[in-house]
Amino acid sequence: MNDEEEYENEEESEDASDFDGGVYVVDDDTARLLEVVIGMIHMLATTQMEETSRENCHIIADELAERFAITLAGDIEVEEIIHGDEVLYKPRGGVMGDDAPEAEGPAPE
Known about the structure:
The chain is of the alpha+beta class. It has helices at about 5-15, 30-45, 50-65; strands spanning about 80-85, 85-90. The radius of gyration is 20 Å and the shape is extended.
């Protein structure tokens, strides 16, 4: 087989029409990481200025969730943090959901 034939075969195998709609099965740790990534994509959507960009982020996250049979527990709450001249967005409870919740109101003296 020459290089040109090999390249053509690679193109055919990467064709999106070959996808049969199946679901990928992954171990629990990988599933948890996928949940985080999907949540982060949804959070990214909330920061987009254009409606089309927001919709595209949600479509990508939903497709990824469907392909790996990932169900998010609920909406991800995002905190806005002002850091100097920057505005940062982070999920309440941290990216992996293991940060201690910050106390509301002023810190005790």
